[in-house]
Amino acid sequence: MKRITYQKPDLHMHSVYSDGTDTPELLLRNVRAAGLDIFALTDHDTAEGCDAVRALLQPDDPVFIGGVEFSCKDARGKYHMLGYCYDVKKPAIRETVAFAHNNRILKTQDRFRYLQERFGFTFTGEERAELLAQKNPGRPHFAALMLKKGYVRTKNEGFDAFRDYRDTVPSLSPEDAIDAILRSDGIPVLAHGILADGSGDLSREEISARVERFKAAGLMGLECYYSTFTPGQKEIMLALADRFNLLITAGSDYHGANKTVGLGQTNDPDLERLQRFYDAVSCLL
């Protein structure tokens, strides 16, 4: 690694390889412009974007960490699990990425059905094929398509259209995601924990129970500094990291034009509290 410590980290961001709008080239330009000195690309259910970024890196660029963000679900809720510094050649991570990607394609087909049955929204075969051809299609792609067709007035309305959507597609469990990351020599970290899958609002008791369960499954870290955490939420996550002796990370969850969050907006992290994570990944880079 170039440095032992870092001053401006962002360990959670997305590109066009999932539901962000930045190409790898644009993302790297924006990372440089934001003054980051360490960053991680964590696209949903794919590692392809990481390979593309690595191919563009220059010797004086910020330190880059390969990552992934798995969308998980079980009978108790929805979760997002970050994986860092895994060995992409390991069968465990490759099989899990393939499963998660196929799950997204099935869910995309199911969402087309839902929109037609719930709202009467219709889409041509060409529109369906174009959306399914995305690297990892998700709600932002649907919102953009609905906006283009005039079915909604804003992207937020497009997101709201799925408020009552309940999919029945087989899902990746959080324990399986943790296991795959560990078996690929990576570091599993719970993303935006108290916000569940990013859109929830868990109680202190609910997130405590989740962290305790995932720690027993091998969880190694928590995203305690996150762009939209309130001060109270941040303190709850930091206390849980201390209680369960977990690594701490900081991420913006940048999506380019699909969110108003900017690169490096990681909610004022205490840089000393991130050091154990840097130490853990230093031997893996």
Report on this model:
This protein is of the alpha/beta class. It has a 7-stranded mixed β-sheet. β5, α8 and β6 form a beta-alpha-beta unit. The protein is globular, with a radius of gyration of 18 Å. The model has no long low-confidence stretch (mean pLDDT 93).
Spans of at least 5 consecutive residues whose pLDDT stays below 50 are none
Counting DSSP E segments of at least 2 residues, the number of strands comes to 7
Rg is 18 Å
Strand content: 5-15%
Number of helices: 10
How much helix, percentage-wise, in residues?
40-55%
Q: How far do the termini sit from each other? A: 7 Å
The SSE string, one letter per element, is: EHEHEEHHHHHEHEHEH
pLDDT averaged over residues: 93
**Apparent shape:** globular
- Main beta sheet: strand number and arrangement? 7 strands, mixed
Helix/strand-derived category reads alpha/beta
Q: Strand order within the widest sheet?
A: 1-2-3-4-5-6-7
